Amino acid sequence: MNISLEVLSQLSAQIAQLQPEQYAQKLEVFNGSSIGGHTRHVIEFFECLLNALETRQVNYDARQRDIMVEQNRDYALSIIERCKQKIGSIEDKTMRFTLEAEFGADHTFSTPTSFEREEIYLIEHSIHHFALIKIGIQAHFPEVDIVPGFGIAYSTIAHQAKKAKNTEQIPS
């Protein structure tokens, strides 16, 4: 399976368990932000990359910041599905892009990249935000189950599996 699709599916499965008011609730552990806010942030990065398929220029700083994604769980779920469909339809992920980034008014950078490289970045970026979402759920909504592997880097999961396998092989 495409890892981006897997990551977006994890997000859908996790936020679908939340009540709409839990999704949008401002949480102390997030300094007043919400699970919806983190979800919006993740989705908008994917949308930036997908929108760049036409221009071949991606700038995550110029994202839309759609407040409805942050406040409406069902709307967010529909946007995630739309992103998954679009990613699933991409045949050539080797296409070249230009990444633009802004660091203050006087510091704009532009560098060559590819769809594949940006997809790797989005996977890691998403997992980072999933870890934060998981903290919010555990702190404020402990009755909500955490999707297995949610908020844990793939490299960490692989390392833990290898460590567990090595421990099993040690004779007692």
Structural commentary:
The protein has seven helices and three strands, in the order αααβααββαα. The chain is mainly alpha-helical and 172 residues long. It has one domain: dinb family like domain (Four Helix Bundle (Hemerythrin (Met), subunit A), Up-down Bundle). It has a three-stranded mixed sheet. The longest helix has 26 residues. The radius of gyration is 18 Å and the shape is globular. The chain starts with a helix and ends with a helix. The model has no long low-confidence stretch (mean pLDDT 93).
In the CATH scheme, the class would be Mainly Alpha
- Most strands sheet: 3 strands, mixed
Question: Looking at the structure, what is the overall shape?
Answer: globular
Structural class: mainly alpha
Q: What's the mean pLDDT score?
A: 93
Q: Figure out the total of helices.
A: 7
